[in-house]
Amino acid sequence: MKRPMPQNGTDWETLKDQMSSLAEGDMDWRNGRTGMYVFYAGEDVLKVAKEAYTMFMSENALGPLAFPSLKQMEDDVVGMGLSLLNAPESAVGNMTSGGSESIFLALKTARDWARDHKKFDGEPEVVLPQSAHLAFDRASHYLGLKTVRVPLGPDLKADAEAMGKAITSNTIMIVGSAPCYPFGLIDPIEELSQLALSHDVWLHVDACVGGYFAPFARMNGVEVPAFDFSAEGVRSMSADLHKYGYAAKGASTVLYRADELQRYQIFDCEDWPGGRMVTPTAAGTRPGGAIAAAWAVMNYLGVDGYREKAAAVVSTRQKLQEAVAGNNRLHVHGDPLLGLIAFGSHELKIFSVYKKMYERGWFTSVSTDPQGIHLMLTPAHEQVIDDYIADLRESVEDVAGNESQADEMKARYS
Ligand SMILES: Cc1ncc(COP(=O)(O)O)c(C=O)c1O
Asked: Is 365 helix (H, G, I), strand (E, B) or coil?
C-alpha cells in the first residue's frame, strides 16, 4: 500500500523512541523464551558483533581492491570454517548473506559443473531426504531444477539406500543435512558419501545449523559422526555464521572441496558499458558489516569460547531430552546430538500442547511430519530450561484432560 513520505525530516531521538514503541510487540529474545530466529550468546558477544558491524557498515565487499580489509576478513572467516570442517588444502569458499544463498550457490555451481561434465536427457534433478531444508526447493525453483524428495528411514534420518535408487543420469546433486532443521538429526553422511563416489555425483552437506556447532560439540566429547569434508564424497557444504556462529545476521559460508568446483559459482562479465564485474556470490553490493561482525565474533570467542557455548547448549538439550523421555505422554523425534530438538506425542495432539506453551509465554517452532514441538536451543536457554520443563509438564496435563485439541498450526510465514 502506498503511503506518503513525510515532507520534513524528524530528529533521531524522536525516531528512536518511535522505533522502541514499534518493538514493544516483538518477542523479548533476551529472556530465553524464544526457541527460534535469534541465537543469543550473551551481551558481550552481542556488543562485539554490533561494534564490528557498525565499524564496517558503509564498506562494500564488492570492491576487494578498495577494501582489502574486508577481503582479508572474509578469507580469514572462510579459512577458519574450512579448517573446522576438515577440508583439504585445495578447499575454498565464500561468505554469503545466509543459508539460503549458500544453498542457492551450491546448487547453481553443481548444475553448471554438471553441464560441463555430464549428459542430460531431461531436467536436472536434485535428490533430497524428505527432511532437507526447503531452501533447496526455493533455489531449485529459481534455477530450473527438479527436486526429488526421498522418504526418511525409521530413525528419521536420510535413507541412503532409497536415495541411491532415486539417482538417475539427470541427478546433479544429492543432499544430506548436519543436522536437518525439522528434527536436528545428522544424516548418515559417510553412507551418502559412498553413494556419491560410486555414482560420481555431487554431495552437498547442509550444515547451516551444525557447521559452527558440531566441531565444538565433538571437541567436548559428543560422538558426532563424520559429517564434513572428512567424508571423501562431500564436494560442498553450507554453514551459517548467523546461527551457532553467533555472528550478526547476513552471514553464512559456502565451501567447496576444490577451486575447480567453485569456479562454476563465479560470475564474470563485461558485456555492458559499466566495465568488467566479477561477483563470486549472488549479491552485487556485499555488506561489510556482516563480514566484520563474523570475523570479530569468531576471534573474540575462539575455540575455547565456542566450546563453552556448545557445552551449555548440549547440556540444556540433554536436560530437556531427559524430561521429555521421562514423560510417558511424550517422546523425542530421533536421537539429536546438538542444540536442536523436536518432540511429539502418540497420545495427545501435540499442537494443543504447543498452544498451551505459547499461552505460557514460550515462542518456539513446530515439526509437521511427524508433528512436534521444535526448539533451537542457545546459551540463553540454560537459565530457563527448568521453567520450560515445568510449564511443559503442566501443559501436557492440561491437554490430557481436554477433549477438543488443535489439529493444525497456522502457517508460520503467512
Ligand atoms: C538446515 C538449514 N538449512 C538452511 C537454512 C536456511 O538458512 P537461512 O534462514 O539463513 O537462509 C536453515 C534455516 O533455519 C536451516 O535450518
From this structure: strand
